[in-house]
Amino acid sequence: MQNLNRATMEYLMQNLSAGMSLVEVRNLCERFMLENGADSFWYYDVGAFVFSGEETTLSISGKDYTTADRRICENDLLTVDLSPQVQRIWGDYARTIVIEAGKVVVHPEDIRHPEWKRGLRMEDHLHHVLTEAATEAMTFEELYFFMNEEITKQGFVNLDYLGNLGHSIVQDKQDRIYIEKGNGTKLSDVKMFTFEPHICLPGSLYGFKQEDIYYFEKGKLKRL
Predict the structure, then answer these.
(1) Three-state DSSP class for 182?
(2) Where's the Peptidase M24 domain (predicted)?
(3) Rounded distance, CA 202 to CA 45, Å?
């Protein structure tokens, strides 16, 4: 499912352009996933959560989500969060996409908007810090405090409406446990977990998100 997510995001970036509605973006993603291996969507039957512009700072539960009646601008920021499944095996993947002069900027170093470039670089940085710092003995709570401290140190804000940074991968969404305060479960006690910092600069209109699934192999944290 993660390979499907990567393929879906690549397909989307090849077909995105200014003027498309967010509903079109969602439908494009969901249709591609269903045609290429997914049998359904595990997160409240929504396969692609799509936000643009100032709405990229919104953090809401999937049960409250509706796709906004908006169109992509010539210069815009888009966050897409995918949740396909097949036979209750999940994929969970999110990226922030930059559109400048009506087209997707494929390479982050080519982004002209300084804040957007900084936001995407920070997401890469946080995921790198995670892979270097996380250990099998670390608890979800310890990771929560460690990564939130790093977010603050780098001058950003955690936008998640519950304050968490990810969750375990299970077969029933009600069984998820979170990277949050008070969770004493060790990271190695779950098979896999997501890391999905949703961040912005203080007071900014623009939010950034990058989500991947991680697991331990021979004591080393790996990205699925």
Answers:
(1) coil
(2) 3-215
(3) 32
Listed in order, strand segments (DSSP E) in the chain are: 40-41, 48-52, 76-82, 84-86, 89-90, 93-100, 103-104, 157-158, 193-195, 198-200, 208-209, 212-217, 220-223
Per-residue pLDDT reduced to its tens digit, 166-202: 999 999 988 999 999 999 999 999 999 999 999 999 9
Domains delineated in the chain:
2-223 (3.90.230.10)
Give which of 179, 174, 21, 14 is closest to 106, Cα–Cα: 14
Please write the tens of the pLDDT for every residue from 83-98: 999 999 999 999 999 9
Contact partners, residue 207, CB within 8 Å, separation at least 6: 51, 56, 57, 58, 59, 79, 96, 119, 159, 198, 199, 200
- DSSP assignment, residue 21? B
